Amino acid sequence: MNRRVGAQARTRYAHDHVVGVPRMIGLSVAIGRFVEALFWAILKVAGVVTVAAIAAAVAAILAFVVMRKLWARQARRRGK
Description:
- The protein has one domain (about 5-80).
- Helices cover about 65% and strands about 5% of the residues.
- The chain is built from one helix and two strands.
- Strands 1-2 form a two-stranded antiparallel ribbon.
- The chain is rod-shaped, with a radius of gyration of 31 Å.
- The protein starts with a strand and ends with a helix.
């Protein structure tokens, strides 16, 4: 993989400037990437919780409507 191609050497990493030595990212970049990943993970969890809460509310409302209709039907049958 370290064969010479013209004036440049091909390395494992496309961004290498020294043959065989990968460049390191700065600490601030690493911290920034970590904070960004943490932010997106929190948003993902918050989104899942929000969808679950909305789904539970819709299910509760639907169950309430169905039960109300069933009770109303039973009341009409008793009245006859």
